Structure formats: C-alpha cells, structure tokens
Amino acid sequence: MAAKEAPAEAAPPKKGKKKLIIIIAAAVLLLGGGGAAALVMMKKKAAAAEEGGEGKAAQADAPKFKAPDPKNPPIFVALEPFTVNLKPEPGLGDKFAQISVTLEVAAKEVEDALKLRMPILRNEILFAIADKTAAELLTNEGKQALGMDIASAAGKQLGWQAPPKFVVPPQLMPQPGMAPEQVAQLEQMKSMLEKQHREQFKSGSPNPVLAVHFASFIVH
C-alpha cells in the first residue's frame, strides 16, 4: 500500500502584505490609547518649550485677549515693508524679497500690544522670510505658509501658543514596492490620526491675529 502523500505546505504569506499588517497594527495602537498618549506628550513638550528660555521671557508680561466678536469691524495694522535676503538655492545667485504685510487683528487692544512689541515682531518676521527660498515664495502655497508663520509669530508676542504641528508617524510612511491599495490604506490611517490630533488641540484659545494680508510681494 502506497504511503499517503504529505499535505502540501501552505504558501507563505507575501512579505509586503505581512509588513503592511504590522504597520497598520502599529497605527491602530497609535489611534487608540497610544495615539492619545502621544498627543498628550506632544502637548506637554510644546508647553514646556514655551515656558523655558526666550519663550518665557517674551511672554511673561503678555496680555490676555478675549475671543474676537464678529459684530465688531476688523482692525488692520500695516507694517513697514520688509526687504530680506532669501535662503540660497544651489546653482542660483542671491535672491531677495520685498514684502509689505498688513495684519488683521481682533481688537484695538491687540493693535496697541503689537505696536509695543513691534521691534521683536519685525525681527521674527525677518527670520521667517529669510528661511524661505525664492522657489517657495513664488508659489501660492509658499505665500500661504509664510502668512501662517507670520500670524504665529505675531500671536506668540501676544501670549498665544500655537498648537504643535502634526507629525506623520514613521509606521505610516509608504515603503518602496507597496501596492497602490496598500498606500491607500496607510493614507486612510494617516487621515484618521491627523483628525484625532486636530480634535485634541482645537479647544485652545484663538490667535488674536486673525489674518495676514500681503499688500505687495516681489521676489528678485
């Protein structure tokens, strides 16, 4: 009687699929208790950074402002124009920008407080512009990013603390060779975690600087 054939071994799972399962499992942990803990840790680190060094000195006497009343007309604070050398780019000569900025603020007391801190604020804005390249500032996205940097710098002088930026966990970064559906799953996980981050920090006080408007924007 012939011996029974040994059952065929199951095909080993594909490495890419197994790796994706591990990545998604790690992301799920982040989205659960781990994610909340990570966000709390980020918030504590941001608060500690503001309490120490220059942040503490700059905000020690910063006034507190109420949330803006939509019934009140906006107040505009025009700053003196900025002429700043931009970050060098390989293969290109020196570039500079000439920018005129107007801040939209919530109330008259915000305008008064900014004027008292204007030398510090201008210094912060100069550094924010100098950290950009000409290529960045020639795009609408780059201009919007600079406006957000200026609004944050101005708000900081008024005692406002910007929420920490969302950082994509390494586990959610696409890996070479991943299938499109695997990348889509990672993007979905990233969106869920980013939403959780926004929910965690949305209860903070609003920035007294409502908007940044560019009166002129020239890059040479």
TrEMBL record:
A Pfam family annotated for this UniProt entry: FliL
Keyword Acetylation appears in the UniProt entry: no
Record membrane topology: Single-pass membrane protein
InterPro entries given in the database record: FliL
Location(s) in or outside the cell: Cell inner membrane; Cell membrane
Transmembrane segments: 20-40
Keyword annotations from UniProtKB, A to Z: Cell inner membrane, Cell membrane, Cell projection, Chemotaxis, Cilium, Flagellar rotation, Flagellum, Membrane, Transmembrane, Transmembrane helix
Record-stated family: Belongs to the FliL family.
General function of this protein: Controls the rotational direction of flagella during chemotaxis.
Protein name: Flagellar protein FliL
